[in-house]
Structures are given as C-alpha cells and as structure tokens.
Amino acid sequence: MAKIGIYGSSFDPITNVHLWTASTVAHRCKLDKVIFLPCSNKRKDKEIKTENTHRWDMLQLAIAKDERFIANSYEMEQEGWNIYTYDTMKYFREQNPNDDIHFIMGADLLVDIGAGLWKNGEALVDENKFIVMARHGIDMLSTISRSPILRNHDDGRFHLIDKGLAMEISSTYIREEFAMGGEPKYLLPSACYDYIKEHNLYQK
Ligand SMILES: Nc1ncnc2c1ncn2[C@@H]1O[C@H](COP(=O)(O)OP(=O)(O)OP(=O)(O)O)[C@@H](O)[C@H]1O
Ligand SMILES: O=C(O)c1ccc[n+]([C@@H]2O[C@H](COP(=O)([O-])O)[C@@H](O)[C@H]2O)c1
Fold first, then answer.
1. What separation in Å is there between the alpha carbon of 106 and the centre of ligand 1?
2. Which among 12, 34, 36, 39 is the best mutation to test ligand 2's pocket, defined by most ligand atoms within 8 Å of the CB?
C-alpha cells in the first residue's frame, strides 16, 4: 500500500513554495508520492488566463528531478469545472483502491470547506483524509471546532502540519512581477522562469 498526497492548485505558475511545501509534507507524513493536480482553466470560480499547456509544461519542468513528485492531468482534461475536488478524490480512490490517499491543502482551504463553500463539502470530508498546512493567522484547531462539518468528522482524518516557516510566495505575486517589469527570478524554478520569458507569459 502506497501513501499518496494529492496537491491541487492552478499552478499558474508553480512556485518554490508549492515545491517546498510538497517536499516538507512528503517527508513529515512519509508519503511515497505527491501528485500535483493542476485544475482546468475552464474552472468557473477562479479566472485562469494561462493555457493548460503552459501550466502543464512548467509543472513538468519543476518536478522533473524529484522522483517523489508526479503530475496528473485528470482535472485539466475535464470539459468545464463540472469536476470538483469531491469527484476528483472519488476518482483517485477508485483508481488506487489499495493506496492510502490524502488531499494536501493549506489551512485557508480548511476554513472554506468548514464554512460550507465547497461542492459536496460534507461528503468530501466524510470520505477522505487531509493533510492541512498551517497558514499565517489561521488557528486550525479552532477552525475545526467551530465548524460542524469538520468537527463531526475529526477522528484523525485531518493531519495538521505546521511547516515551521510562514514562507509565502504566491503565484499572483509572480504574475504581477512579470507583468509590471519586476524581477521574481528566485521565487520559482529557474527552468520555469526561463519558460515564462521564452513564451512571453504574464505580460499586461
Ligand atoms: N505558503 C503556503 N503555505 C501553505 N500552503 C500554501 C501556501 N501557499 C499556497 N498553499 C496552498 O497551496 C494550494 C494551492 O494554492 P494556490 O496555488 O491557489 O496559491 P497561490 O500560489 O496563492 O495561487 P494564486 O496566487 O494564483 O491564488 C492551496 O491548498 C493553498 O492553501
Ligand atoms: O471542490 C470545490 O468546491 C473546490 C473549491 C475551491 C477549490 N477547490 C480545489 O482546491 C485546490 C486549490 O484551489 P485554489 O482555489 O487555491 O486554486 C484545487 O485543487 C481546487 O480544485 C475545490
């Protein structure tokens, strides 16, 4: 039985914090694999202007040298965002019935799920396990205890991780820097930086 973490994001672009958090979680939770799962750009709740192919290619460049990391295009291949994390996790559990599968996310998403903002949120919590990474200003224990959706399933399925550093690099910041003539060079893998320059991405 393999222990697998699924890390969902738009990865627009993937940043060094995505890689560092994935690596930290893999090490601390003894994961055999982290699956990076970029969402579709047809997603309805978040505008993603960068074509799937670019986000996918940058992701491949970023994870190429780490054998714990793989990318999966399941959500990108879906028609629109008819697919939610609930469906995705169901799909991965069915594909890997002998494995121990966890959804990796920041505590900001735990707050959203607890507030009932996710599709089929209660069933999602009921049927899955989660690795939740601390985010600055969010008390994960009280987030769970304040939400009936979360606290009534708090039987060990939430593995709460405080990474030790509140390092913040957002994809938004990197996009803004490219658009405004800034220099985000060391905030993302150098191969991704070069790819963005070569393809003229994130220009105004
Ligand atoms: N510094 C961080 N610490 C812990 N989790 C993080 C951190 N940054 C992002 N995450 C988590 O990674 C996942 C994907 O986040 P996402 O890619 O949307 O962040 P982002 O880089 O801020 O992107 P954008 O700026 O485009 O919204 C989420 O679960 C989020 O909580
Ligand atoms: O299923 C949902 O309702 C849902 C709502 C918001 C976000 N998600 C998932 O959460 C992950 C991170 O999302 P985001 O908004 O931080 O890019 C990504 O895998 C999304 O598909 C899922």
1. 7
2. 39
The position carrying tokens 């220009």 is 203
pLDDT for 116-174, tens place per residue? 999 999 999 999 999 999 999 999 999 999 999 999 999 999 999 998 888 889 999 99
> At the topology level of CATH, where does 3-196 sit?
Rossmann fold (3.40.50)
Query: Residues of 124-153 as b/e, b for ≥16 C-beta within 10 angstroms?
Result: bbeebbbbbbbbeeeebeebbeebebbeeb
Closest ligand by atom to 173 CA: 1
Q: From the alpha carbon of 10, which atom of ligand 2 is closest?
A: 17
If pLDDT is split at 50, 70 and 90, which confidence band does 57 have? very high
Distance 11 CA to ligand 1 centre (A): 9
In this predicted structure, what is the pLDDT of residue 81?
67
Torsion angle in degrees (nearest 10) through CA of 39, 45, 50, 54: 0
Which ligand places an atom closest to the C-alpha of 17? 1
Query: What residues does each domain of the chain span?
Result: 3-196
